[in-house]
Give the backbone structure.
Amino acid sequence: MLVSQGIYVIDGDGDLYFYRFSNGSVTKVIHDARFIADWSMAISPDGREIVWTQIDVRTADVMLVENFH
């Protein structure tokens, strides 16, 4: 996720890192194993809030309707 001060990146272990443009430093922000699964993330412009969605359970229903009019 790109913000004005840098880039947020998630690695394969569920760690969220921040790369700061001004000095090239990399900071670990948080570790959460739920980042490894399907997700979508947004970060506030000031970088103080992170919101993400996660899918805990995937299910699907298939129905056959015969003679539908």
Notes: The longest strand covers residues 15-20. The two ends are 48 Å apart (CA to CA).
